Amino acid sequence: MRTRLTYAGLGVLSTLVGVAAGHLVASLTTPSSSPVLAVGSAVVGLVPTPLAEWAIAQFGTHDKTVLVGSVLVGVLLLAAVAGLLARRRFAYGAGLLVVLVAIPAAAALTRRSAGIGDVLPSLVAGAAGVAALAWLTGARPAPATGDEGDAPTRRGVLVAAGALALSAAAMGGAGRWITAYRTRTTRVDIPAAADAAAPTSGSLDERVPGISPFRTPTDRFYRIDTRLSLPVVHLDDWTLTIDGDVEREVRLSFDDLAAMPLIERDILLTCVSNEVGGSYVGAARWRGVRLTDVLAEAGIGATGADQILSTDLDGMTISTPLELATDGRDAMIAIGMNGRSLPQEHGFPARMIVPGLYGFISACKWISRMTLTTYAEQDAYWTQRGWATDAPIKTSSRIDTPPSFATMQPGRTVIGGVAWAPHRGGVQRVEVRIDGGGWQPARLGPAGGNDYWRQWYLPWTAESGEHSLAVRAVDGQGVVQSPARVAPFPDGASGFHEISVIVA
Length: 504
What we know:
This protein has 504 residues and is α+β, with helices and mostly antiparallel strands. The chain has ten helices and 19 strands. It has three domains: 4-182, no CATH class; 218-385, Sulfite Oxidase, Chain A, domain 2 (Alpha-Beta Complex); 396-503, Immunoglobulin-like, CATH 2.60.40.650. 32% of the residues lie in helices and 23% in strands. The strands form four sheets. A five-stranded mixed sheet has the order 2-1-10-5-6.
């Protein structure tokens, strides 16, 4: 008689076959409808804000990996139970696998842009998993009499398990490759900007080792969003629709946008979830069409709207205060980043950029629709979860070097980092405090403009012992960064960044 552990293993293997088959089918249709990803996306939508903030704080950009891994572990634990039930009667185990299939099927259907075809990966997963379980549990060792009859031997069971394991690995690997291929970054030539950004020079990149680059490289730019998989974008089919309280509904193709006068600006973006001293902030050179020019295509002169409700390709919504988006700042629909077309993970083919506002109300990626409406009529994803509707980026500063808790040699060194005060005249001054003493003025790198960050450094003769370092910034209007320690929810963190180092 097979042990319970054996049957549990057969349940797990059968489920892995099903998951791999479903993932392969999803890679050919809609990657986000893959069973595990569909459940994970549903969890993202249901998780309370405090728990989501805790996950981001604990796991950072790996939070999605942890989520998907947790979902998979939970599925496999239930799969082991299905195997144990099949030991008693096959129908019991198969029934539990069917229930496991129903969950991702329902999750796929509840996605904002779901279609009936999104159930197909789950159905294939269920069929493959049940078939695998039937094959494995139907393979019984020869009876003690030696009369094998038609039942496979134990060796047959091992061969079947090995074949299914290889099949699962092959299907899973193929699904990953196909998904990566279909969601790869597409390079598109974009026209030069009619209104280009001013050239900059004199950055501290080489002079202060360890400092954040003046311009964040695209492959190092932070990414925070709710997606567990990138969308599949067909540029020829993509359009940006402007509707709602407008004079006329308009649909613009990528070529339509690229043909309009483009601007190029150095703009800082940061996530509202960024803790004091956190890494969810980056500064890049963006190229795109002024948001006001895009909205003018639809006509908004007599609108009663107070928000732009942006929708991405998968139905994710972000709300932006209309007054702030059209007050003269360099808001744009961006199609380029750091001299090239947008990469897939940062919103290809187009995204919204509104300087001075946290990304959750200003930076819709993979944008496909802008609806002029009111906050009273429609709530966006983050608004429904209690986040602020008006969230200007707070003046902040960060120590990049030395790293927190670093052990250093005594002698001459530098303290350095970046500071930002977007749409407040930029950073006028940065000050550093050592061991609770007076605030000392730091030396500043080049100014990147009203909406960019600024590098800074302070020469320091480090003496033996443990030291505390703190930094604060002063904006272009002379207002000092707030010392009040505030958590990110609901409109962004504040407080001085303070670290400890040991000189020995």
